[in-house]
Design brief:
The chain is mainly beta. It is 9% helix and 43% strand. The relative contact order is 0.16.
Length: 365
């Protein structure tokens, strides 16, 4: 048996008083307004909840599953109504792109990580249904980006949470409405909270050919620690990337260190990444390198931000349009065509994490 119901949301539905708008088994959906005026949608299942921003980037603002807050620490306790990336940076998942992505260089004029992170969505809807994996709820929406002579596309993301699962299914469809081909860049910026003394386990060879450190500090970030210590550590990582696999609170990640990872796939075309906690639980992401060929890893541990970008699946590196274009990393989306990106993210219990570790070791072998 399967069923599907779509609830079209409207901004007028939202108020400071929280409202239950849908319920199915252990799944419940609530809508509300933050004090800042940002629209919020929380979906609860049997194992926790996610807080999303249906009209602002369709971000996952907070993700709490298996009794653990997975989202990064930041100076933002609530979302801010803005289109500026750094004025609202603290969410668990942000879509980046699509006309450009990454940190702009002096030769670039695009905003940091593009127009998608805080895009104003015209449509947002909640889907309630059941399939072979059980009952689910999914947030979806539509953002239409138009710039005369340059771009005309529609973005359609979806976040699906099942009744009894601690793993979310996330997708993004970009449809080119222009009569000509356009350039495309995309990245899913997934920001876990680092867990001290955890271990990073992922499906590739742990050598400089597959795990490359990017030794550059963006101009918008100011170092709060000893730069000599940071530079020395990055030099060591160039030849021994596995030095960062232990999440040691003494290691220098202020303001950040970025890696580019070439992943290996399993028999289904999926790559896997885990941050395995000391008690056996593991933060988890899977993505398809055939769709998102770059695995960007971002670790930032300052006095105000604490983030483990375990893997940010992307079409390119995060060095901005001009640099990625020079490296032939900017993709082409043909006229009137669309592309879809898929990933799964959340947390595994110790038994699931152990099975995934064995799977990852088999892929590497």
């Amino acid at each position: 048996m399967s069923y599907l119901t779509r609830i079209n949301l409207d901004r007028t539905f939202f108020s400071e008083k929280e409202k239950l708008i849908a319920e199915s088994g252990h799944l419940k959906a609530f809508i509300y307004l933050y004090d800042s005026g940002v629209h919020g949608l929380r979906i609860e299942n049997a194992l926790g909840y996610i807080e999303t921003l249906p009209y602002q980037g369709q971000q996952i603002w907070r993700c709490n599953l298996l009794g653990r807050e997975l989202s990064m620490d930041s100076m933002f306790d609530k979302p801010v109504k803005t289109s500026n990336y750094l004025e609202n940076y603290g969410g668990f998942l942000l879509h980046c792109g699509a006309t450009a992505m990454g940190v702009p260089s002096e030769s670039d004029d695009h905003p940091l990580h593009g127009e998608l992170p805080n895009a104003r969505y015209e449509e947002a809807y909640l889907t309630v249904g059941e399939d072979k994996n059980g009952k689910f709820m999914a947030l979806g929406g539509r953002y239409h980006h138009r710039e005369a002579f340059n771009s005309n596309y529609i973005a359609r993301p979806q976040i699906t949470i099942y009744e009894s699962s601690s793993i979310l299914d996330v997708s993004m469809v970009i449809e080119n409405l222009k009569g000509t081909d356009v350039e495309l860049m995309y990245m899913a910026h997934i920001n876990f909270k680092p867990v001290d003394h955890s271990e990073l386990v992922y499906s590739t060879d742990y050598d400089p050919e597959h795990v490359m450190v990017y030794d550059n500090i963006p101009s918008h970030m100011k170092a709060g620690s000893d730069m000599n210590e940071l530079v020395d550590y990055m030099e060591q990582l160039k030849t021994k990337p596995d030095l960062h696999h232990k999440v040691d609170p003494k290691l220098p990640y202020d303001p950040e260190i970025v890696f580019f990872i070439k992943y290996k796939e399993d028999e289904h075309g999926d790559a896997h990444s885990m941050q395995v906690h000391p008690d056996g639980y593991a933060d988890y992401v899977s993505h398809k390198p055939s769709q998102l060929k770059y695995g960007v890893r971002w670790i930032c541990r300052t006095k105000d931000e604490d983030a483990m970008g375990l893997v940010l699946p992307a079409t390119s590196g995060s060095r901005g349009y001009t640099r990625e274009k020079a490296l032939a990393n900017v993709e082409i989306l043909p006229a009137k065509q669309s592309v879809e990106f898929n990933m799964r993210l959340g947390i595994l219990d110790p038994k699931q994490a152990l099975a995934m570790r064995e799977k990852i070791e088999a892929i590497k072998a």
